[in-house]
Amino acid sequence: MENTPPFDPGKRHTFRKFLGLGAGVAATGLLIPNSVPAFPQRPTNPAPPLAGIFDVRLFGATGDGNTVDTPAINQAIEAAAAAGGGTVRFPAGNYLSYSIHLKTKVNLYLEQGATIVAGDTGPQGNYDAAEPNEWDKYQDFGHSHWHNALMWGEGISNVSIAGPGLLWGKGLVRGRGDTGAGVGDKTISLKNCHNVTIRDVSVLHGGHFAILATGVDNLTIDNVMLDTNRDGMDIDCCRNVRVSNCTVNSPWDDGICPKSSFALGYSRATENVTITNCFVTGGYQEGTVLDGTWKEFEVGVRVPKTGRIKCGTESNGGFKNITISNCVFEKCGGLAIETVDGALAEDISVTNITMRDITNLPIFMRLGSRMRGPEGVPVGQLRRVNISDVVVSNTAAKFASLISGIPGHRIESVRLSNITVLHPGGGTSEDAAIKPAEKENGYPEPTMFGTLPAYGFYIRHTKGIELNNIDLHFEKEDLRSPFVLEDVQGADFVHVKAQRASGAPGIVLRNVDDFNAWLSRPLPETHLENVTEKTL
User: Fold this and answer.
1) Which residues make Cβ contacts (< 8 Å) with residue 47, sequence separation at least 6?
2) I need a surface site. Which of 17, 92, 300, 535 has the fewest CB within 10 A?
3) pLDDT-derived band at 48, boundaries 50, 70, 90
4) What is the CA radius of gyration of the chain?
């Protein structure tokens, strides 16, 4: 873990109470109980279960936090599946477990006070081995394997994980590469499933992924809280997805992340996705959003504070029919839409977004040619994107929102409207003269071009872009232009207002065709057919 534990054992009384644990000791930054509450033990002659309800206690689970309950949990799931379906019930308790096998028509329900605790790899137990995948060279190890998880399902349907309980990935690793035999690196892992619901549960310290869903159709994730040490949820090669009312704190990686990798052995688009009413952040110590203390990182602690919503980086299959609405970004990266592996990304709508204390830049759109996939695939396309009703305050000073294709491959048909940005400012005349490198094959990170020559929007290699009702201000004088456009075909500025320092360039145009401006004072109504280089 980076530099500082996510919990202070001397001050996390609230969290211990939340988990129902006694005094704890620090271990890899998390609390391990010295003792657990005395939950009722399995009766000698238990009453018959209710129809369709399979209580894990009746199958031998102790819930004492010390005994490995994996066999009992999996037996309860098998019994429910054999009965044609049912609900596997977890009463209040701490269920130490390794790989739990999800089954068709089985619902896991965690009652209030129920915690499934991911065990440490070692003498007590191990996680299922990562299954072979001949396509794992096209994405990282974590995206390519599903069985090495706290709970996983493959080829199953009509499944749900629900209830107010907690999944604590205490023994899971962050997964920077091959995790090794018996090691788990994700909390919930799903492959080639359909009709899946994850609702009301919370995840603490989820490993590489709190939720990894690959090739899952008809997926609902609702009212879920993820307070974790890497990715919150990755929605990879999935169709018909609804993510709503979720809170994600993921300081070290992405919060909500649609992807379209080659992990299934073929290109499959992530499409028909709605993300709404969610809060994403990377600004709080792990566990402190979950326990309500909202503890920020100490000054000097190096944390990327990623936390954002991002379409990419894996983009072999592309993204189609994506809506992102009514979401709040705080102390994290901004919105990212990327296609760099030869795929089509189109018909994307983003609306009603507030962003505060953004660690890099508010809007990042990138069409590139990394081409991490089978050979022979052409460069992809990024087109028909609407972003509207966005309010931003306090972004990283050296950056601007960036929309960039590559030479010969333009981002097309982008409409930006009703956007207000309060920028910290501070850019110099030397910054204004920067001409960013192309980095056509580079990893698409918002910071990839370094300091930008604009403080508002840097737009390059695009065709058909409209900015309507844009309002830009800075807190400290900035000698850069609010807008820089390079290699742009068709740009309309309508009712655009931007604060400009004395002596700073206005709108900078380089190799721009068909530029138009209306109602954008002090700029008069303007039409320019062809511009090699001009400042307005």
Assistant:
1) none
2) 300
3) low
4) 25
Mean pLDDT of 258-286: 98
Regarding whether 276 and 128 lie in a shared domain, the answer is: yes
CB atoms within 10 A of CB 439: 17
Q: Are residues 95 and 120 in the same domain?
A: yes
Q: Are residues 175 and 64 in the same domain?
A: yes
Please tell me the chain's helix, strand, coil percentages from 3-state DSSP, rounded to the nearest 5: 5, 50, 45
Tell me the C-alpha distance between 62 and 69, whole Å: 7
Q: Please give the structure tokens belonging to residue 306.
A: 């990623």
| First-to-last C-alpha distance (Å) of the chain | 50
Run of H or E including 72: helix 70-82
pTM value is 0.91
Q: Does 209 lie in the same domain as 278? A: yes
- Claim to verify: residue 358 and residue 429 sit in the same structural domain: yes
Residue 318 is part of which domain span?
A: 35-326
Q: Are residues 55 and 162 in the same domain?
A: yes
Predicted pLDDT at 38? 45
- The two tokens of residue 346 are 């189109």
Q: Are 73 and 165 in contact (CB under 8 A)?
A: no
Q: Which of 394, 338, 334, 337 is nearest to 360 (CA)?
A: 334
- Residues with Cβ within 8 Å of 461's Cβ and at least 6 positions away in sequence, in order, are 367, 404, 405, 406, 407, 409, 410, 411, 486, 487, 488
Residue at a domain's end among 277, 294, 326: 326
Is 18 a domain residue?
Answer: no
Domain presence at residue 20? no
Does any domain span residue 59?
yes
Could you read off the pLDDT of 185-235 as tens digits, one per residue?
999 999 999 999 999 999 999 999 999 999 999 999 999 999 999 999 999
Which residues lie below 8 Å from residue 502, measured CB to CB, with a gap of 6+? none
User: Which residue type, as a one-letter code, is found at position 211?
Assistant: I
Tally the domains of the chain: 2
Under DSSP, is residue 45 helix (H, G, I), strand (E, B) or coil? Answer: coil
Over residues 348-362, mean pLDDT: 98
Number of neighbours of residue 233 by Cβ within 10 angstroms: 31
Please, how many CA atoms are within 13 Å of residue 188, restricted to the half-sphere of its CB?
31
Question: Quick check: 8 pLDDT over 50?
Answer: no
pLDDT of 422 above 50: yes
Asked whether residue 5 is domain-assigned, the answer is no
